Amino acid sequence: MASLDTVDAPARKPAGRRRRSGSDAGYWLYLLPGAVLFLLVIGGPLVYTGYLSLTKWSGVGDPTFIGLDNYRDLLTDDVFWTSFQNTVAMIIAMVVLPTLIGLVLAAVLFDTIGRRFRPRTAAALRAAFYLPQVLPVVVAGIVWGWILRPDGALNGLLDAVGLGSLTHDWLGDPNTALPAVMAVMIWVQLGYPVVVFMAALERVNPELYEAAEIDGAGWFRRFRAITLPQIRPETFVVGLTCTIAAMKVFGPIFALTRGGPENATNVPSYFAYFTFFKRLQVGYGSAISMVLTLIIVVVAVLFIRAQNRAERRDGVL
Amino acid sequence: MAITLTPPRRVRRPADRRHRGVARWIVLALVGAAALAMLVPFAFMLLNAFKSPGDYSTNGPLSWPGEFYTTGLRTYWEQVDFPVKLWNSVLISGSVAVLAVVVSLLSAYALGIGRIRGRLWIIGLFLLANMLPQEALIYPLYHFAKEAGLYNTRLAVIIIFTVIQAAFGTYLLASVLGTFPRTLLEAAALDGAGRWRTLWRVVLPNIRPTISVLLVFFFIWTWNEFLIPLVMLIDNQTQTVPVALASLQGDRLMDAPTTNAGALISLLPAILFFLIFQRTLSRGITAGADK
């Protein structure tokens, strides 16, 4: 993901800018379709949701303006706090663990298996890890929802290997529902960092590894001293895109648990959807959405700032 | 390179080399086991998609199917009228991919090559739009679609996703076109080509690989979308493949074999696309990561 600076950099020549500014008008025309559509589908609705978050409305008739009441109610709403706690769990399951496991897997696939066996072997293994990323996440959710059912495949498997005492209604018990959903999300996400990191490693000069190996550096030292620093840009991209995806996660929750049992797996986006369309509290749902939006924007800005700072530090060194 | 360096290493550290010879098989076994574990859910699904409900309730989810039972597949196919769902998904995803690429290209032309004033803010806005949770847009979209008579039409979903995908496409293409060689543009201008001609005859052919990656991404992303189609498309004639599966499962009417049969049918197109587009995709992932 290119930072905004790189887009701007070549244009900072003042002379060229002055000379062209007269013909700017012609180019504005090309922006017109995109801009109109953008205002219609994204800008307008976002502003309207912001307005609705200050009202009480069931979707029919006219919204009643109530100021910040919805936001005040949110602060004392247990479901709201639970849903954001669960977002942290989703970030662990969709960002932290897949990235860590993905780093090790990519390094092993590339460094050990790709070089000591045929590259074909590494590619086939990579495809296996990536496959869950290919299917519609709702389909994955439905298959897993069945596997985790009381009469599903997981309990069947436990019975078959003599661990029948461990069988459980995995998604129906508030204590196991969240860990079960997290496990599914790790399975869904893992392939993405593996594929991105393996592609990144191809960019790294192999002589670095060769040299380190001749110097007697073990696998872990090569991993820490070469792999990690070399693919840091990709780690940032994976971290940012997955964190945003984790904060927005909806489909898997809808397919697996609908936020239940007892809100144990509720997340902000499902909470908002439910408030909009099942409880018909449009104002309150809008307030949830606006808080989620704000948090996502803040996290994204912090991420991009951190990345730019890291890049600048590298430039100095 | 590895090959040329191998002999001296072998001479220098024979013991370590032998040790690693065993270690590498252990590593392969571990990673192979992990990869197999990833595939287990697919195996479960396949096993139970061809099982009769009676077979399932007597013999459980792990048994080999007593007979090659395809009624579950046929039931799901007919119950949701799968060909219609497939066509809806293809129509929506295909239109979105093409329209979003066109809109992205036009906007990026103005931003990356035209370098119009305030472009940094505009690009930032598009980037931000890409991160928004769809919940922040969905109620107004739903409400306005109803007022405009577009509710429960595929057109509404096509328009919405064209804009959402184009937000990303504009951001990406604007940064690609920001580094477009000026000499090519100047040469085109000398040949008397206007802006419109330059866009289609000079710029487009030079960024064709990026465009094809975007087309594939937009198609697959739109195919897999869920929230907006779930809210916007409510009947059998308009729903997409994932929404059909989810809403039938929501009715709690489906037995385990039909669930698995439905999931199997629904993921086949995705796997098909994956196989078809694999080369474009892996190139795209690499290209994206290079940025």
TrEMBL record, chain A:
Regions crossing the membrane: 27-48, 88-110, 122-147, 177-201, 236-256, 282-304
Family: Belongs to the binding-protein-dependent transport system permease family.
InterPro entries, per the entry: ABC_transporter_permease, MetI-like, MetI-like_sf
GO cellular component annotations of the record: plasma membrane
Species for this entry: Micromonospora sediminimaris
One example of a Gene Ontology biological process annotation: transmembrane transport
Name of protein: ABC transporter permease
Coiled coil: none
Membrane topology of this protein: Multi-pass membrane protein
SUPFAM superfamilies cross-referenced by the UniProt entry: MetI-like (SSF161098)
Keyword annotations of the record: Cell membrane, Membrane, Transmembrane, Transmembrane helix, Transport
Lineage: Bacteria, Bacillati, Actinomycetota, Actinomycetes, Micromonosporales
Region of interest (Disordered), ranges: 1-21
Main location: membrane
Location of this chain's protein in the cell: Cell membrane
Residues annotated as domain ABC transmembrane type-1: 84-303
TrEMBL record, chain B:
Superkingdom field: Bacteria
Biological process (GO), any one: transmembrane transport
Pfam families in the record: BPD_transp_1
ABC transmembrane type-1 domain sequence ranges: 86-277
Membrane topology: Multi-pass membrane protein
Entries under CDD domains matching the protein: TM_PBP2
Bilayer-crossing regions: 21-47, 86-108, 120-142, 154-178, 199-223, 261-277
Cellular component annotations (GO), alphabetically ordered: plasma membrane
PROSITE patterns from the UniProt entry: ABC_TM1
InterPro entries to which the protein is assigned, alphabetical: MetI-like, MetI-like_sf
Keywords tagged on the record: Cell membrane, Membrane, Transmembrane, Transmembrane helix, Transport
Subcellular location: Cell membrane
Membership in a protein family: Belongs to the binding-protein-dependent transport system permease family.
Full protein name: ABC transporter permease
Organism phylogeny: Bacteria, Bacillati, Actinomycetota, Actinomycetes, Micromonosporales
